[in-house]
Amino acid sequence: MPRPALPARLRRLPAALLTLLLVPLPGCSGDKAPPSAGAPAHHTAEGFRNRDGSTIDKSQWEVWRWQLSRRDPPRPQPPLPVVAPDLQAPEPNITWIGHSTVLARLGGLAVLTDPQFSERASPVSWAGPKRVGTLPLTPAQLPHIDVVLVSHNHYDHLDEASVRALAAQPGGAPLFIVPLKLKAWFDDLGLAGLRVVELDWWQSHVERGVEFMLTPARHWSSRTPFDRQRTLWGGFAVLAPEFRLIYTGDTGYSRDFTDIRQHLAHRGSFDLALIPVGCYEPREFMRAQHVNPADAAQIHLDLGARRSVGVHWGTFEGLCDEPLDQAPRDLATARRLVGLADEAFTVLKHGETLRLQGAR
Fold first, then answer.
1. Strand 93-98 versus strand 353-355 pairing type
2. Which residues form the signal peptide (predicted)?
3. Angstrom distance (rounded) from CA 183 to CA 345
4. Closest by Cα among 277, 245, 249, 250 to 264
5. pTM of the full predicted structure?
6. Cβ atoms 32, 42 nearer than 8 A
7. What are 145-160's pLDDT values in tens digits?
8. Per DSSP, what are the bridge partners of residue 308?
9. Where do the DSSP E strands lie in the chain?
10. Which residues of the chain have a pLDDT value below 70?
11. What are phi and psi of 184, to 5 degrees?
12. What is the set of domains in the chain, with CATH numbers?
Protein backbone atom coordinates (compact mmCIF):
# COMPACT_ATOMS: atom_id res chain seq x y z
CA MET A 1 0.00 0.00 0.00
CA PRO A 2 1.31 3.51 -0.74
CA ARG A 3 2.32 5.54 2.26
CA PRO A 4 -0.17 8.31 3.11
CA ALA A 5 0.94 11.78 2.11
CA LEU A 6 2.27 13.98 4.86
CA PRO A 7 0.02 16.86 5.90
CA ALA A 8 0.90 20.10 4.13
CA ARG A 9 2.19 21.71 7.32
CA LEU A 10 4.64 18.88 7.94
CA ARG A 11 5.82 18.99 4.34
CA ARG A 12 6.63 22.65 4.85
CA LEU A 13 8.76 22.13 7.95
CA PRO A 14 12.07 21.92 6.00
CA ALA A 15 11.20 25.14 4.20
CA ALA A 16 10.15 26.78 7.46
CA LEU A 17 13.43 25.82 9.10
CA LEU A 18 15.36 27.07 6.09
CA THR A 19 13.46 30.36 6.12
CA LEU A 20 14.92 31.08 9.53
CA LEU A 21 18.24 31.36 7.69
CA LEU A 22 16.84 33.62 4.98
CA VAL A 23 14.53 36.03 6.80
CA PRO A 24 15.87 38.69 9.20
CA LEU A 25 15.18 38.14 12.89
CA PRO A 26 15.59 40.63 15.74
CA GLY A 27 18.53 40.74 18.05
CA CYS A 28 20.89 38.80 15.80
CA SER A 29 23.15 41.39 14.28
CA GLY A 30 23.58 44.25 16.70
CA ASP A 31 22.68 46.49 13.74
CA LYS A 32 21.15 49.22 15.89
CA ALA A 33 24.51 50.12 17.42
CA PRO A 34 25.61 53.63 16.40
CA PRO A 35 28.33 54.08 13.78
CA SER A 36 31.82 55.00 14.83
CA ALA A 37 32.76 58.68 14.79
CA GLY A 38 33.02 60.04 11.28
CA ALA A 39 31.41 57.01 9.60
CA PRO A 40 28.47 57.47 7.21
CA ALA A 41 25.07 57.34 8.89
CA HIS A 42 24.13 54.02 7.28
CA HIS A 43 27.16 52.32 8.86
CA THR A 44 26.73 50.74 12.29
CA ALA A 45 29.24 49.35 14.74
CA GLU A 46 28.78 45.86 13.26
CA GLY A 47 27.35 46.45 9.80
CA PHE A 48 24.81 48.58 7.99
CA ARG A 49 21.27 49.94 8.03
CA ASN A 50 18.99 51.71 5.59
CA ARG A 51 19.34 55.40 4.87
CA ASP A 52 16.24 56.23 6.91
CA GLY A 53 17.85 54.52 9.92
CA SER A 54 15.62 51.45 9.70
CA THR A 55 16.53 47.80 9.80
CA ILE A 56 14.21 45.06 8.53
CA ASP A 57 13.51 42.54 11.27
CA LYS A 58 10.81 39.91 11.63
CA SER A 59 10.12 37.96 14.80
CA GLN A 60 10.50 34.19 14.83
CA TRP A 61 6.76 33.95 15.45
CA GLU A 62 6.00 36.00 12.30
CA VAL A 63 8.26 33.77 10.21
CA TRP A 64 6.80 30.51 11.55
CA ARG A 65 3.22 31.77 11.25
CA TRP A 66 3.78 32.70 7.61
CA GLN A 67 5.55 29.48 6.69
CA LEU A 68 3.17 27.07 8.42
CA SER A 69 -0.04 28.79 7.32
CA ARG A 70 0.84 29.55 3.72
CA ARG A 71 -0.68 27.76 0.77
CA ASP A 72 1.37 26.87 -2.27
CA PRO A 73 0.05 28.96 -5.18
CA PRO A 74 -0.78 27.02 -8.35
CA ARG A 75 1.88 26.80 -11.02
CA PRO A 76 1.15 28.81 -14.17
CA GLN A 77 -0.86 26.91 -16.78
CA PRO A 78 0.41 26.83 -19.41
CA PRO A 79 3.95 27.12 -18.00
CA LEU A 80 5.71 30.43 -18.42
CA PRO A 81 7.39 30.45 -21.85
CA VAL A 82 11.13 30.11 -22.35
CA VAL A 83 12.65 31.46 -25.57
CA ALA A 84 16.10 31.25 -27.14
CA PRO A 85 18.35 34.24 -26.35
CA ASP A 86 19.64 36.34 -29.23
CA LEU A 87 23.31 36.57 -28.37
CA GLN A 88 24.07 38.21 -31.73
CA ALA A 89 21.82 41.22 -31.16
CA PRO A 90 23.59 44.56 -31.59
CA GLU A 91 24.39 46.64 -28.51
CA PRO A 92 22.84 47.84 -26.37
CA ASN A 93 20.64 44.90 -25.37
CA ILE A 94 19.59 42.85 -22.37
CA THR A 95 18.62 39.20 -21.96
CA TRP A 96 16.51 38.09 -18.99
CA ILE A 97 17.90 34.77 -17.76
CA GLY A 98 15.50 34.57 -14.83
CA HIS A 99 14.73 36.12 -11.44
CA SER A 100 17.27 38.98 -11.11
CA THR A 101 19.91 37.53 -13.41
CA VAL A 102 20.19 39.73 -16.50
CA LEU A 103 22.83 39.78 -19.20
CA ALA A 104 23.34 43.38 -20.35
CA ARG A 105 25.59 44.23 -23.28
CA LEU A 106 26.46 47.91 -23.47
CA GLY A 107 29.51 50.11 -23.78
CA GLY A 108 31.49 47.23 -25.28
CA LEU A 109 31.06 45.13 -22.10
CA ALA A 110 29.05 42.03 -21.22
CA VAL A 111 27.61 42.66 -17.75
CA LEU A 112 25.76 40.13 -15.61
CA THR A 113 23.55 41.02 -12.64
CA ASP A 114 23.08 38.82 -9.56
CA PRO A 115 24.31 35.44 -10.88
CA GLN A 116 21.92 32.60 -9.97
CA PHE A 117 21.92 29.63 -12.35
CA SER A 118 21.28 26.82 -9.85
CA GLU A 119 18.25 24.61 -9.36
CA ARG A 120 17.58 26.05 -5.91
CA ALA A 121 18.12 29.45 -4.31
CA SER A 122 19.27 27.91 -1.06
CA PRO A 123 22.30 26.98 1.03
CA VAL A 124 21.36 23.30 0.55
CA SER A 125 20.45 21.23 -2.50
CA TRP A 126 17.50 19.38 -0.95
CA ALA A 127 15.25 22.22 0.20
CA GLY A 128 14.50 25.84 -0.42
CA PRO A 129 13.05 27.84 -3.32
CA LYS A 130 13.19 25.73 -6.49
CA ARG A 131 13.55 26.88 -10.07
CA VAL A 132 10.49 26.31 -12.21
CA GLY A 133 10.99 25.76 -15.91
CA THR A 134 14.04 25.44 -18.09
CA LEU A 135 17.10 27.61 -17.54
CA PRO A 136 17.37 29.49 -20.86
CA LEU A 137 21.10 30.07 -20.71
CA THR A 138 23.71 28.15 -18.72
CA PRO A 139 27.02 29.64 -17.59
CA ALA A 140 28.78 27.61 -20.30
CA GLN A 141 26.54 29.18 -22.96
CA LEU A 142 27.18 32.77 -21.91
CA PRO A 143 29.39 35.05 -23.92
CA HIS A 144 32.58 36.06 -22.14
CA ILE A 145 31.40 38.08 -19.13
CA ASP A 146 33.43 41.19 -18.34
CA VAL A 147 31.68 42.44 -15.18
CA VAL A 148 29.37 40.79 -12.62
CA LEU A 149 27.27 43.05 -10.39
CA VAL A 150 26.13 41.62 -7.05
CA SER A 151 23.44 43.66 -5.31
CA HIS A 152 23.47 41.72 -2.01
CA ASN A 153 24.27 38.32 -0.57
CA HIS A 154 20.90 36.52 -0.42
CA TYR A 155 20.89 33.08 -2.00
CA ASP A 156 18.52 34.05 -4.81
CA HIS A 157 21.02 36.76 -5.87
CA LEU A 158 24.43 35.30 -5.07
CA ASP A 159 25.01 31.61 -5.74
CA GLU A 160 28.33 29.90 -5.06
CA ALA A 161 28.13 27.38 -7.91
CA SER A 162 27.32 30.18 -10.35
CA VAL A 163 30.24 32.30 -9.14
CA ARG A 164 32.63 29.36 -9.48
CA ALA A 165 31.40 28.68 -13.02
CA LEU A 166 31.89 32.32 -14.00
CA ALA A 167 35.35 32.40 -12.43
CA ALA A 168 36.29 29.42 -14.60
CA GLN A 169 35.02 30.87 -17.89
CA PRO A 170 37.42 30.61 -20.86
CA GLY A 171 39.47 33.74 -21.25
CA GLY A 172 39.65 34.57 -17.57
CA ALA A 173 37.33 35.43 -14.71
CA PRO A 174 35.16 38.54 -14.82
CA LEU A 175 35.44 41.48 -12.47
CA PHE A 176 32.97 41.21 -9.58
CA ILE A 177 31.65 44.50 -8.19
CA VAL A 178 30.01 44.09 -4.79
CA PRO A 179 28.77 46.11 -1.81
CA LEU A 180 30.98 46.77 1.20
CA LYS A 181 32.20 43.82 3.29
CA LEU A 182 31.17 41.22 0.71
CA LYS A 183 34.65 40.71 -0.75
CA ALA A 184 35.55 38.44 2.18
CA TRP A 185 32.94 35.90 0.99
CA PHE A 186 34.65 35.71 -2.39
CA ASP A 187 38.07 35.45 -0.73
CA ASP A 188 36.82 32.46 1.27
CA LEU A 189 36.03 30.62 -1.97
CA GLY A 190 39.76 30.31 -2.56
CA LEU A 191 39.62 31.37 -6.21
CA ALA A 192 43.12 32.57 -7.00
CA GLY A 193 43.39 35.89 -8.78
CA LEU A 194 39.69 36.74 -8.69
CA ARG A 195 39.16 40.50 -9.04
CA VAL A 196 36.59 41.84 -6.58
CA VAL A 197 35.88 45.54 -6.05
CA GLU A 198 33.85 46.70 -3.04
CA LEU A 199 31.78 49.88 -3.11
CA ASP A 200 29.81 51.94 -0.62
CA TRP A 201 26.65 53.77 -1.68
CA TRP A 202 27.46 56.49 -4.25
CA GLN A 203 30.96 55.14 -4.84
CA SER A 204 32.01 54.19 -8.38
CA HIS A 205 34.40 51.99 -10.29
CA VAL A 206 35.26 52.59 -13.95
CA GLU A 207 35.95 49.58 -16.15
CA ARG A 208 37.01 50.19 -19.75
CA GLY A 209 35.21 53.52 -19.91
CA VAL A 210 31.98 52.38 -18.24
CA GLU A 211 31.18 53.67 -14.75
CA PHE A 212 29.51 51.40 -12.18
CA MET A 213 28.03 53.18 -9.16
CA LEU A 214 26.50 51.43 -6.14
CA THR A 215 23.17 53.09 -5.37
CA PRO A 216 21.16 52.84 -2.12
CA ALA A 217 18.15 50.58 -1.63
CA ARG A 218 15.88 49.65 1.28
CA HIS A 219 16.72 46.04 2.06
CA TRP A 220 19.00 43.86 4.24
CA SER A 221 21.63 41.14 4.00
CA SER A 222 22.29 37.69 5.45
CA ARG A 223 23.53 34.22 4.52
CA THR A 224 23.38 32.71 8.02
CA PRO A 225 21.55 33.56 11.29
CA PHE A 226 24.78 35.16 12.52
CA ASP A 227 25.62 37.75 9.85
CA ARG A 228 22.50 39.90 9.60
CA GLN A 229 23.26 43.30 8.06
CA ARG A 230 27.02 42.63 8.23
CA THR A 231 27.42 43.30 4.48
CA LEU A 232 25.92 46.17 2.52
CA TRP A 233 23.17 45.94 -0.14
CA GLY A 234 22.13 48.20 -3.00
CA GLY A 235 21.63 48.61 -6.73
CA PHE A 236 23.86 49.72 -9.58
CA ALA A 237 23.85 52.61 -12.00
CA VAL A 238 25.74 51.60 -15.14
CA LEU A 239 26.85 54.69 -17.03
CA ALA A 240 28.24 54.01 -20.49
CA PRO A 241 28.98 56.80 -22.97
CA GLU A 242 25.90 55.99 -25.08
CA PHE A 243 23.57 54.29 -22.61
CA ARG A 244 22.46 54.67 -18.99
CA LEU A 245 21.09 51.65 -17.10
CA ILE A 246 20.07 51.21 -13.48
CA TYR A 247 19.39 47.97 -11.66
CA THR A 248 17.72 48.80 -8.35
CA GLY A 249 18.41 45.52 -6.55
CA ASP A 250 15.87 44.18 -4.07
CA THR A 251 14.16 46.99 -2.21
CA GLY A 252 11.15 48.23 -0.38
CA TYR A 253 9.76 51.53 -1.56
CA SER A 254 11.69 54.55 -0.26
CA ARG A 255 12.86 58.03 -1.19
CA ASP A 256 16.13 56.52 -2.38
CA PHE A 257 14.98 56.57 -5.99
CA THR A 258 14.14 60.26 -6.20
CA ASP A 259 17.51 60.86 -4.53
CA ILE A 260 19.27 58.69 -7.13
CA ARG A 261 17.63 60.68 -9.91
CA GLN A 262 18.75 63.96 -8.35
CA HIS A 263 22.24 62.66 -7.59
CA LEU A 264 22.80 61.66 -11.22
CA ALA A 265 20.74 64.35 -12.95
CA HIS A 266 23.88 65.84 -14.48
CA ARG A 267 24.55 62.53 -16.25
CA GLY A 268 21.24 62.48 -18.10
CA SER A 269 18.15 60.27 -17.86
CA PHE A 270 18.27 56.51 -17.43
CA ASP A 271 17.57 54.76 -20.72
CA LEU A 272 16.53 51.57 -18.91
CA ALA A 273 15.69 50.57 -15.35
CA LEU A 274 15.62 46.97 -14.11
CA ILE A 275 13.13 47.00 -11.22
CA PRO A 276 11.87 44.04 -9.15
CA VAL A 277 8.14 43.37 -9.56
CA GLY A 278 7.68 40.00 -7.84
CA CYS A 279 7.77 38.33 -4.41
CA TYR A 280 5.48 40.80 -2.66
CA GLU A 281 2.90 38.62 -0.90
CA PRO A 282 1.94 38.37 1.91
CA ARG A 283 2.03 42.12 1.65
CA GLU A 284 2.40 43.07 5.30
CA PHE A 285 5.27 40.61 5.64
CA MET A 286 7.08 41.70 2.47
CA ARG A 287 6.28 45.42 2.28
CA ALA A 288 9.43 46.74 3.96
CA GLN A 289 11.82 44.67 1.84
CA HIS A 290 10.12 43.98 -1.53
CA VAL A 291 8.15 46.36 -3.70
CA ASN A 292 4.96 45.24 -5.42
CA PRO A 293 4.15 46.23 -9.03
CA ALA A 294 2.42 49.44 -7.89
CA ASP A 295 5.52 50.47 -5.95
CA ALA A 296 7.69 49.45 -8.91
CA ALA A 297 5.68 51.72 -11.24
CA GLN A 298 6.26 54.59 -8.82
CA ILE A 299 10.01 53.83 -8.74
CA HIS A 300 9.99 54.02 -12.55
CA LEU A 301 8.51 57.51 -12.26
CA ASP A 302 10.83 58.51 -9.41
CA LEU A 303 13.88 57.52 -11.46
CA GLY A 304 12.61 59.27 -14.58
CA ALA A 305 13.58 56.22 -16.63
CA ARG A 306 12.72 56.18 -20.32
CA ARG A 307 11.84 52.51 -20.07
CA SER A 308 11.74 49.82 -17.38
CA VAL A 309 11.78 46.02 -17.34
CA GLY A 310 10.49 44.01 -14.40
CA VAL A 311 12.73 41.38 -12.81
CA HIS A 312 12.62 39.23 -9.63
CA TRP A 313 9.54 37.23 -10.61
CA GLY A 314 8.39 34.01 -12.25
CA THR A 315 11.46 31.87 -11.54
CA PHE A 316 11.67 30.33 -8.04
CA GLU A 317 8.65 28.85 -6.30
CA GLY A 318 8.55 29.01 -2.52
CA LEU A 319 10.03 32.49 -2.12
CA CYS A 320 6.68 34.14 -1.50
CA ASP A 321 2.93 33.61 -1.80
CA GLU A 322 1.70 35.15 -5.07
CA PRO A 323 1.51 32.87 -8.14
CA LEU A 324 4.59 33.01 -10.35
CA ASP A 325 2.60 34.62 -13.17
CA GLN A 326 0.80 37.21 -11.02
CA ALA A 327 3.34 40.05 -11.25
CA PRO A 328 2.77 40.87 -14.96
CA ARG A 329 -0.99 41.12 -14.39
CA ASP A 330 -0.56 43.39 -11.39
CA LEU A 331 2.00 45.45 -13.30
CA ALA A 332 -0.52 46.01 -16.10
CA THR A 333 -2.99 47.34 -13.53
CA ALA A 334 -0.31 49.54 -11.96
CA ARG A 335 0.60 51.02 -15.35
CA ARG A 336 -3.00 52.00 -16.00
CA LEU A 337 -3.38 53.60 -12.60
CA VAL A 338 -0.38 55.91 -13.09
CA GLY A 339 -0.97 56.51 -16.81
CA LEU A 340 2.06 54.66 -18.18
CA ALA A 341 2.05 53.29 -21.71
CA ASP A 342 2.36 49.52 -21.93
CA GLU A 343 5.79 49.71 -23.55
CA ALA A 344 7.13 52.03 -20.83
CA PHE A 345 7.34 49.24 -18.24
CA THR A 346 7.30 45.67 -19.49
CA VAL A 347 8.39 42.18 -18.56
CA LEU A 348 10.28 39.68 -20.71
CA LYS A 349 9.98 35.96 -21.32
CA HIS A 350 12.69 33.80 -19.81
CA GLY A 351 15.59 33.96 -22.25
CA GLU A 352 14.15 36.89 -24.20
CA THR A 353 16.57 39.45 -25.58
CA LEU A 354 15.46 43.08 -25.79
CA ARG A 355 17.23 45.36 -28.23
CA LEU A 356 17.59 48.86 -26.87
CA GLN A 357 18.33 52.28 -28.19
CA GLY A 358 20.20 54.97 -26.34
CA ALA A 359 19.25 58.61 -26.67
CA ARG A 360 22.78 59.91 -27.15
1. antiparallel
2. 1-29
3. 34
4. 245
5. 0.92
6. no
7. 999 999 999 999 999 9
8. 273, 345
9. 93-98, 101-106, 109-113, 130-131, 147-149, 175-179, 196-199, 204-207, 210-215, 235-240, 243-247, 272-276, 308-311, 316-317, 345-346, 353-355
10. 1-37, 59-61, 358-360
11. -60, -35
12. 93-355 (3.60.15.10)
